[in-house]
Model the fold of this input.
Amino acid sequence: MRRPIAPVPSSRGSKRAIAVFGLVTLYAGCCAQAPTANGGWIEGRATYYGAPEAVERAYDPTRGAGSFGILAFGACGYTNLPGGTLPFARDAVAASADQNPDYPGSCGRCYEVRCKSGLLLNNERVPIRIVYPDLGGGNISTVGYFDGDTARPYLPSINPNVTDGEGRPFPGNMGEAQKVVDVRCYDENRSLRVRVADSCPCKQVLPDGAPGVKPGGEVRRQEWCCGPVNHFDLSYWAMEQLAHPVFGAIMLNYRPVDCTTGAPIPPNFISPYIYSAVTGIGPGWGWFSYDAQLARLENQGPTPIPGGTKSTCVSVAPKGGLSFRCRQCQRPGFQPFAGRTQLRFWIRPDTEDSDPFNTSTPAGEVPGLKLFIMQEELKQYCRNELVLGNTTLPTGTQGEWYSFVIPLADFGCGGGTGYPELADIDRVDFQNMAIRNAVVCITELALG
Ligand SMILES: *[C@@H]1O[C@H](CO)[C@@H](O)[C@H](O)[C@H]1NC(C)=O
Ligand SMILES: *[C@@H]1O[C@H](CO)[C@@H](O)[C@H](O)[C@H]1NC(C)=O
Ligand SMILES: *[C@@H]1O[C@H](CO)[C@@H](O)[C@H](O)[C@H]1NC(C)=O
Ligand SMILES: *[C@@H]1O[C@H](CO)[C@@H](O)[C@H](O)[C@H]1NC(C)=O
Done:
């Protein structure tokens, strides 16, 4: 019956929020129309974020590194600590616009993307114009901007000579004279598989103190991500395989696919396997640690892991934890907990130390973490939090691992009493309530 202690939210997304050219994290807003499928392919558009330092310096000499945004610390978490590295290939990640119809549960979902040559379209589906602002006194800016986005310069107007990672020169914009962007893809048949690791909010909330932001913070509209044209912010390294990055943005054909096999999946797919020992983090699920000294999304453990080889491991301070979140998944059509009856997982202490005065998770004992589930967007908790090895006992052991199969009814959600309904739950946390650090690994976390 105790209220769980509200964990400190991860605010790392703000690192992207200060990017000049990168579109940014932190979401708001809702709902565009469902995409019309065409053989599984959906039309969309993409900008990009992150870039090699040489490219950043070419376009923003004063700020340089980071001015196009960074890939790590995105809105889906996935950031290993210490060091702050993203555990995915840099050419295989993207951010989903929060107005895309399948934005809920998009963290960890994979998309196959192809470049589509031709005119870059705005959200009214007419060619987006390059505008050259009137600076007053009869002066017109030599730097052009995409109409509706004065934060995103038209790069060829600053420097058309920047080559991509393979040394290829910008092929030129055939729409230059008409002040539109006519993209020539490298190969329209080339397809890449990217995983969503971040979000691009239509309404961008910029924190107080970020460079170029008014005191007290600011809210900016990022037209690209406001729909109804579906949009992705690809990593620079994904973009440069499709078309020259100096174009700035491209049209896409894309479809949701299985991250491992590449087979098409339904757009709303959210895996009941939140973390699999075979495939790691499940499509639909963000991964966050808080008050962590060490956090690894994927750990190839020295000990055999039931069913596979992967687990996720953290070392967290008191009140720190590990959190799995399906963003905006309370929306009908998503709802990963709807109709489910169990939460199951394997957990083990990840320390050699068996002295309870040294660690709150001594070797050879059930890690006594608190487990709770909640509705993230409304910050609503169910009645009960459980304590592993105390209010809930393991159903089995294997080596150092303990298995749990927990009836979801034990959390006491819903019932018309002001607690969130089970169907609206979209977050699972393991939290350290002891007075010493907890060091654990978890795997095979799934809804049944
Ligand atoms: C790009 O290259 C052309 C041809 O070499 C040169 O005239 C021009 O100054 C260069 N522009 C920039 C911004 O470096
Ligand atoms: C792309 O694929 C289509 C259909 O297979 C083919 O006709 C076309 O020649 C391909 N284009 C390129 C550039 O390879
Ligand atoms: C507990 O930590 C102390 C200090 O680091 C160490 O000397 C001791 O061996 C540890 N206990 C065990 C059982 O490892
Ligand atoms: C188990 O729960 C009881 C009752 O809440 C509490 O007094 C006790 O300290 C707990 N033990 C552990 C190991 O958490």
Summary: The pocket of 2-acetamido-2-deoxy-beta-D-glucopyranose (ligand 1) is lined by residues 159, 161 (CB under 6 Å).
